[in-house]
Amino acid sequence: METPSPAVPAFDATFRRHLLDLLVWRRDVRHFRREALPKGTLARLIGLACLAPSVGLSQPWRFVQVDDSARRRAIRDNFEACNAAALQCQAGERAALYARLKLAGLDDAPCQFAVFADRATAQGHGLGRLTMPATIEYSAVMAVHTLWLAARAEGIGLGWVSILDPAAVEAALAVPAGWTFIGYFCLGYPQHCDDVPVLEREGWESRRAPDTVLLQR
Amino acid sequence: METPSPAVPAFDATFRRHLLDLLVWRRDVRHFRREALPKGTLARLIGLACLAPSVGLSQPWRFVQVDDSARRRAIRDNFEACNAAALQCQAGERAALYARLKLAGLDDAPCQFAVFADRATAQGHGLGRLTMPATIEYSAVMAVHTLWLAARAEGIGLGWVSILDPAAVEAALAVPAGWTFIGYFCLGYPQHCDDVPVLEREGWESRRAPDTVLLQR
Fold first, then answer.
1. What digits encode the pLDDT tens for the residues A106-159?
2. B29 HSE (CA, 13 A, CB side)
3. B67 touches chain A (CB under 8 A)
4. Is B5 within a domain?
5. pLDDT confidence tier of residue B4, bands split at 50, 70 and 90
6. Nearest CA to A185 among A24, A70, A28?
7. CB B45 within 8 A of CB A29
8. A213 with B50: Cβ contact below 8 A
């Protein structure tokens, strides 16, 4: 994935069908093989993520690769504490199911990183974000999503961990003050592939028909 | 783009090269041809957007297609007011450049829609968002980004308008209370294609090397 076409590319029906496959078979991966990714994988995927759109070309995404075992343990501990608190909000059978869902690949994923957004960046000169400062976070989210799709196209799975306390993560990873925590991510080869989200397979929730989310004005 | 593969798809190097092309040639389009999109295009693209990841499978994205001319005018008026205010924050030459950038395709784009996120949705049963409620907005942003890529693969351009006052947009479009405004979008055939962002072409900002946004911990 290193050399784009020199001329305006024409995307054909075959590409679009495979792109649909990519969207359909992308998953929030929770079960990883422990095998390491090839050296340089994350940096390469971040290079692709940097092609994402950003408000005012601010590129406010910040990636923090987490290899240190003490820092990983701090993240894991915080996940357990937050997950326990979340369980308090879920009653009975649903809570039991919730507990069974094994939401984190934190123990197995060979590559782990956090993503932040930097609202203080001078890049972009503030363009486009005066009335909507959260577009900085939204830009970082699109970088994550770009990385997610690019990884899946290489047979690599991503899992997004959001059951964390942002302040605890910021402290555990000693990031610059003022960065907004977007998420913590597990990256690695998935144990299996699926075209149905795990939460749907497990009976937690089902997807709705697209026409239910469209209003006309 | 209607029938995904029945078996686990194997993405090959050719697909990955075209995916790279897609990322490289996706643009925030400002200049549209006025020609209408084929009937049903937006609904079909929203169907693809609904394949995006969402926290707890909450699918909190809400799309509002805007066809009514009075509502479009209200959006345009609000853009002009917000853009004028933004210009006050930019001095001298930079302000002049900013004014020249013609940030909106609002006058020409045949298809326009707004996207919101519904934090109050019961779908997903609150899973994964107790400590990070903004993951609801992030999910809607990934749906937008999915639509953006799918559209570009069909030769259709998207432009994101963020220089708007969320409260004014919510009023102009009469959306349910409690929805968070994510952005207003112009969709149509682009006047031209490019692999360089317009803000870079115009000298507003340049993109940075990916290794500048990666920390090791």
1. 999 999 999 999 999 999 988 889 999 999 999 999 999 999 999 999 999 999
2. 29
3. yes
4. no
5. low
6. A28
7. no
8. yes
Q: Which domain holds residue B76?
A: 29-192
Residue at token pair 């968070």? B180
How many domains, chain A? 1
Let me know if residue A3 belongs to a domain.
Answer: no
- Window A:100-159, CB contacts with B under 8 Å: 103, 123-132, 134-135, 137-138, 141-142, 145-146, 148-150, 152-155
* Pairs across A and B, CB distance < 8 A: 313
Helix and strand totals (H; E) in chain B = 7, 5
Across the interface, whether the CB atoms of B46 and A213 are under 8 A apart is answered: yes
Cα–Cα distance for residue pair A7/B105, rounded to 1 Å: 25
* A80 has a chain B CB within 8 A of its CB: no
Q: Closest-CA residue in chain B for A213?
A: B62
ipTM: 0.95
CATH code for position A166 = 3.40.109.10
Q: Are B48 and B154 in contact (CB under 8 A)?
A: no
